[in-house]
Design a protein that fits this description.
Blueprint lengths: L1 H4 L2 H18 L13 H11 L21 H15 L6 E5 L2 H15 L4 E5 L4 H7 L4 E4 L9 H15 L3 E6 L11 H10 L4 E6 L19 H4 L3 E5 L11 E5 L6 E3 L4 E3 L10 H12 L6 H15 L12 E5 L3 H6 L3 E7 L2 E9 L6 H13 L2
Parallel strand pairs: 2-3, 2-4, 4-5, 5-6
Antiparallel strand pairs: 1-7, 6-7, 8-9, 10-12, 11-12
Length: 379
């Protein structure tokens, strides 16, 4: 080990990760919770990456002749989120490569259920939704501003297309939009569909907010999904859950029908043909995360930072229960220093450049004060 640690490669890697840890202190513009890994999770990660290759090809509930998989643990992880979202006893899902694949899976399953349907999604949806929507009949619904979907337009299009074309409604709804942290009104949309007796499928992209523990005060929770008419949900495990690999959980209320593939000896129900996950490390990290005993962890830093902005008289917008603060974009220098995501948005008929700040429990008071002070100095 001494020889390895004195090597050029080790020194370069050590410097890189030390620099990344420093950068993480001042990262406020993107959805990533730096949640330290427990000693057990670290050991399990090492065990995974020093062990023979495992491949969870095919359906999570089936096996062919290939025996080197981690499907049992994958099912446990999916089960944790099925319980969290109340998806019912017959839930199904798998671990995907990220939120984009999960959204692709939600769209695909919606058309398996309603092949003659039309896909509806908000203009504020994650960019992956538009990318995959191009493969299907679809309608993008404009917003009223601040990522709020225009329900009048949505309901008008759904009802018209159902009565003129017999087209069911396949919907991708968002629980925590990318720019403003807004949530589509799921219950209001489901109530409309049920009142009009329009067949539908609803996938909820909960990439960020879906990872928040159910016991957190002031958080945008997502529960009772099956009862509320939600067919599937996706969560990014590298966002609020804070796992260091880019992964996502896709969980649905029922298993889809897939094509039987002789080569793998099972049904091909997942969007990805193969997938490899550090299953034991991921399960332990997710379990520890969901069992967080503190109930104020989500909102403590949010309320602290909100007070800083108010005291500094810095205008901002924060959607209800969101951890996202939208402000007028600062200088390029500050945007780079704090890794802020900047975007153009229409405000009162005028295009303005905005930036958003996402506050997580891992942010320290020292860096939050520094950010607020720097923003104040530029006013």
């Amino acid at each position: 080990m001494d020889k390895l640690e004195n090597s050029t490669d080790w020194a370069e890697a050590e410097a890189f990760y030390a620099h990344n840890r420093e950068l993480a202190r001042y990262m406020f513009g993107y959805p990533a919770y730096y949640r330290p890994l427990s000693p057990l999770t670290q050991k399990l990660l090492l065990l995974h990456y020093t062990s023979p290759f495992s491949n969870n090809c095919g359906d999570i509930e089936e096996r062919g002749n290939y025996a080197m998989d981690t499907k049992d643990m994958e099912k446990r992880i999916v089960g944790l989120y099925a319980d969290k979202f109340d998806m019912g006893e017959n839930f199904w899902g798998y671990i995907t490569s990220g939120g984009s694949e999960s959204n692709n899976c939600g769209i695909a399953l919606s058309f398996l259920k309603n092949p003659n349907g039309i896909l509806y999604y908000s203009a504020a949806s994650h960019y992956s939704v538009e990318k995959y929507a191009e493969r299907y009949p679809h309608r993008e619904i404009q917003t009223l501003g601040k990522d709020v979907m225009n329900l009048d337009i949505l309901f008008e299009k759904i009802e018209k297309n159902y009565h003129t074309k017999g087209a069911p409604a396949n919907l991708i709804l968002t629980h925590g939009t990318t720019r403003y942290g807004a949530s589509d009104p799921i219950d209001q949309i489901v109530a409309f569909l049920r009142a009009k007796n329009i067949p539908h499928y609803i996938h909820v992209d909960a990439a960020l907010f879906g990872g928040i523990q159910n016991n957190q005060e002031g958080a945008p929770k997502l529960t009772n999904c099956k009862e509320r008419g939600i067919n599937s949900v996706s969560v990014s495990l590298h966002k609020y859950v804070g796992f260091p690999d880019v992964k996502s959980v896709f969980v649905a209320t029922e298993k889809p029908l897939g094509k039987s593939v002789a080569y793998i000896g099972q049904h091909d129900t997942a969007v990805s043909g193969s997938r490899s996950i550090p299953a034991y490390a991921l399960y332990n990290h997710v379990r520890e995360h969901l069992q967080e005993p503190r109930t104020d962890l989500y909102q403590t830093n949010i309320l602290f930072f909100e007070k800083l902005l108010q005291d500094a008289q810095i205008p901002y917008y924060r959607a209800e229960c969101s951890n996202t603060f939208v402000i007028d974009a600062p200088s390029n220098e500050l945007a780079k220093k704090y890794q802020l995501s900047c975007f153009d948005d229409l405000e009162n008929g005028v295009w303005k450049q905005k930036a958003h700040i996402l506050i997580f429990p891992s942010h320290r008071e020292q860096e939050m004060r520094a950010l607020a002070n720097d923003l104040k100095m530029e006013q």
